[in-house]
Input
Amino acid sequence: MIKRLLLIAVFAGVVLSFLPLTSLLQTRTGVTSLAQQYLNRAPTDYNIPNIVTAIVVSYRGLDTLGEVTVLFAAAVGVSLALGFRRKARPGKDEPVHAEPTKVPASEILQTGAGLLLPLILAFGVYIFLHGHLTPGGGFQGGVVIASGLLLALLAGTFADVPHGLLQVLEMLSGASYVAIGALGLWLGAGFLDPRFLPAGEFGQVYSSGAIPLIYSLVGIKVGSELATVISDLRRNS
Amino acid sequence: MIGPALFVLAFVIMAIGVWGLLVRRNIFRMIIGFSLLDTGVHIFMVAAGYREGGTAPIVDAQATAAQVAANGVDPVPSSLVLTAIVIGLAVTALMLSYAVRLHARSKSLMVDKNKELKW
Amino acid sequence: MILALVIVFGLIMVGGAVAALYTKDMVSAIVASGIVSLLASVLYLVYGAPDVAMTEAAIGSALTTVVFLYAWNRIVKQRQKDKEDHK
Output
């Protein structure tokens, strides 16, 4: 009883600590001066239509590097906790219980997955290639690719994701991301400056420097990491 | 009027998430509460960047660069929330993997039965 | 008009959030939290953040629900194995 009352008191305290934020409860017609600077200068600095991509990749590129690191650490944590792969030793590790019979996926799911998987993968690649022109980008494209692989796993097209290929892709894209950042330091104005490639014409795919390249590498890394996390959680289930 | 409505919704969902973390004793419910708290914080950040009658900060055929500069919503909270959503998924997956290992070891999902430290 | 949309979606989201914490069946709770994410992604689109809407729809509503369901499946399998061990 006392513990319950204490919990409710703590909850009330947390809710009341939001009270100073009620000054935000008014309609606002302007943005902050920093946001106004970004809105004014981003299309001309980097020749890019999508301003949110410009902020994620170049103005605040170090935050994206930190995010990729945190994602990598979490994927490593999930693999350590759950991804223990026992090699089957014949004659020693006899399974004590009968393996439950797996129901194969239905006809609709198998056919649909076979038709949709190439489309979903192509759509994911399209999203992160055009991240600087339309809403989208590396994270969204990577997640769509991971969802496509999940559909293939659920329908039984693959027995398991190709772990070796995913590890190689993740390693290469992560290292290339930092290498392109260092290239910006050498050839451009600073770390992760994308202006060492030509700025091109406004609205084309080959434009705005190295931003499509950086975002594609982020997309490949995120997609392969999330596919590995899902496969680790799925094993033995 | 439209902006403050989203703030109120964000507060309510954050409060429900904190309630789930504090009161429920099943680990899975606590992780669901954490995910709800995460969603509430993201809604709050997107609401903080909204400007009345604003458009998305993308220059295309419908909105020229001058229109976006005069009328666009704040693009900085959008980029922060993009990063935060992906990190939220990674942390939720990590928490769930630890919950599965905890259940394998102590056969119970209630936090009251998992109180002792190892050494 | 947009205010009516926000209020209706907000009420459904709050109902879904309370249901996610208090239904007995765990699978229903997981699906309810997926519904909260899905409606949040529509609200992000209305409030001028299409990138965030795409990310939330793909991650919050699809991958988070799948990750929860795989983890819950593992727990159910462990419980079944324990019950068979003790027979």
About this structure: Residues 163-187 of chain A form the longest helix (25 residues).
